[in-house]
From TrEMBL:
It comes from Fraserbacteria sp. (strain RBG_16_55_9). GO terms for biological process: metabolite repair; nicotinamide nucleotide metabolic process. Its EC number is 4.2.1.136, 5.1.99.6. Gene3D superfamilies: 3.40.1190.20, YjeF N-terminal domain. AMP binds at residues 428-432, 457. (6S)-NADPHX binds at residues 59-63, 135-141, 164, 266, 338, 391, 458. This is Bifunctional NAD(P)H-hydrate repair enzyme. Its cofactor is Mg(2+); K(+). Homotetramer. Belongs to the NnrE/AIBP family. Residues 231-517 form the YjeF C-terminal domain.
Length: 518
């Protein structure tokens, strides 16, 4: 599903109005009907609920007034407040207010502080509150009368529904200036807005439901946002299917270089993830002293103990890895989990990576080896597609930026890094953002804090590599792998909660979850 920024949504509206001659009142009417229908479908005994709608002066307020009319037609008791005076309303919102007036719906205008006592009393009686104050236009702090109105909404016990976007949340960044409505449900119009998916805005949105409001199919198909929300539909459309008449070679070969003394678990989990997600063959290179562990834990892998020094790979391992890379049909290299940061590993990777001609998934200590002036030069000279999967700390070292800077603009930083380095960047976190060198962005829709445990990233590395081996293009395998990784955690949450979840649990449930995809 496409994701739009606030400005893109305005451009989208403009095209609908100017190019397709759709009056804005029609779009407003459809928005009101759509939001009302979502409430009807999701809330039992809606007609028994007391609903309070708080509208603003702009077109988001008009959407709210239209919702009031549609709910009234369903037999729902509705009370309406507008934050402003009648002469301040946008033309479309004035029209909606006049329609409500003629339908004998009383509108109460909040023009001064003393009117807030009336609102407070109504909020205490309401079962549902609909926020239609600001919409996508807000930038910076909420001002004047709106701040105490939002404070009262947040203090009430009612179920709060935001129309399109919680008031006070920046539609582009998710930033909250001084206050924002804390919604239980956000009914976003046609497409999710970027600020709904980025923190802190995501924390104010509650459940997010998109409702169509009648934009022409040709406009929706032609409008490029450059940002997509990765969901079940995205993955199902791209996940490689298994054929009845096939063999292991049809599902690809992964070469995994991983592990060091004390970090053998990272290698094992990455390997099992690649195999569990469907890769046909897994070749595995690791320090030779780990053989007793690897031989016992991984029965299906083709194993290659490699020369080491002090428990980590030595430069002498390069010749064997080069030979493995020349194996017929080697499809993808996954490198980094548990390798350690020892100088011998860094030197090995600096020599190896520029030679690789198949797609690469580089994680963990593979990324740390690139977080040097020489390493950054190597990244720009890679011959094949490379997927880098850093968490904010690893990206901070790689691009020499503060973690706080990265977290304040996850999309912007990920996009710039992918362009500058010419890589597919998977910036892990909430939400995980995948950026391509073209500037296109994918935002993940799954996952929870159960993934915030050492080893989860190793599972993700194996997952993405396994998908590439089966034929998925790297630019699709990265967001699809991230989605499935988060889905595993979401499926485990009812059973284990988030606190006690471990990466090995992701591997345990992987067969059951992947079975859902055929």
């Amino acid at each position: 599903m496409k994701i739009l920024t606030g400005q893109q949504m305005k451009d989208f509206d403009t095209q609908a109005i100017q190019k397709y001659a759709i009056p804005s009142l029609i779009l407003m009417e459809n928005a009101g009907r759509g939001i009302s229908q979502v409430l009807h479908d999701r809330i039992e005994n809606l007609s028994d609920c007391r609903i309070l709608i708080i509208a603003g002066k702009g077109n988001n307020g008009g959407d709210g007034l239209c919702v009031a009319r549609h709910l009234m037609s369903m037999g729902v008791t509705v009370e309406v407040f507008i934050a402003g005076s009648p002469d301040q309303l946008s033309p479309e919102t004035q029209t909606q207010a006049e329609i409500l007036k003629r339908a004998e719906c009383k509108i109460q205008y909040l023009m001064q502080q003393r009117a807030l006592s009336t609102l407070k009393a109504s909020l205490q009686r309401a079962d549902i509150v609909i926020d239609a104050l600001l919409g996508i236009g807000v930038k910076g702090p909420v001002r004047e009368l709106l701040q105490p109105i939002i404070e009262q909404i947040n203090q009430c016990d009612a179920f709060v529904v935001a129309a399109d976007l919680p008031s006070g949340v920046d539609a582009d960044t998710g930033h909250v200036g001084n206050i924002a409505v804390e919604a239980d449900l956000t009914v976003t119009l046609e497409y999710p807005k970027l600020g709904l998916l980025l923190y802190p805005g995501r924390g104010y949105a509650g459940e997010i439901v998109a409702t169509p409001i009648g934009y022409p199919a040709t406009l929706k198909a032609s409008f490029e946002s450059g940002i997509e929300w990765v969901d079940d539909e995205y993955v199902r459309a791209r996940l490689p299917q298994r054929k009845a008449y096939s063999h292991k070679g049809d599902y690809g070969r992964v070469l995994l270089i991983a592990g060091s003394r004390g970090l053998s678990g990272a290698a094992v989990m990455a390997a099992e993830a690649a195999l569990r997600c469907g890769a046909g063959l897994l070749y595995m290179g690791y320090p030779e002293s780990l053989s007793p562990i690897i031989e016992r834990r991984l029965l299906e892998a083709v194993k290659f103990p490699l020369p080491e020094t002090g428990g980590a790979l030595s430069e002498e391992a390069l010749e064997i890895i080069e030979r493995l890379m020349k194996e017929p049909g080697m499809d993808v290299l996954a490198i980094g989990p548990g390798l350690s940061r020892k100088p011998s590993v860094v030197k090995l990777l600096h020599k190896l990576l520029p030679q690789v001609k198949v797609p690469m998934v580089i994680d963990a200590d593979g990324l740390n080896a690139l977080a040097t002036p020489q390493g950054r030069k190597i990244v720009k000279k890679l011959q094949a597609s490379a997927i880098l999967t850093p968490h904010p700390g690893e990206l901070s070292r790689l691009i020499d930026q503060e973690i706080s800077t990265i977290e304040s603009d996850r999309v912007g930083i990920a996009r710039k890094t992918a362009r500058d380095l010419g890589v597919i960047l998977v910036l892990k976190g909430i939400p995980t953002v995948t950026a391509r060198p073209s500037g296109e962005i994918s935002i993940n829709s799954t996952g929870n804090s159960g993934l915030a445990t050492g080893g989860s990233g190793d599972v993700l590395t194996g997952l993405i590599a396994g998908l590439i081996a089966q034929g998925m293009p790297p630019e699709e395998a990265a967001p699809a792998g991230v989605y499935l990784h988060g889905l595993l955690a979401d499926r485990l949450k009812p059973e284990l909660g988030e606190r006690a979840m471990l990466p090995r649990d992701l591997l345990r449930i992987m067969p059951k979850v992947l079975k859902e995809f055929g």
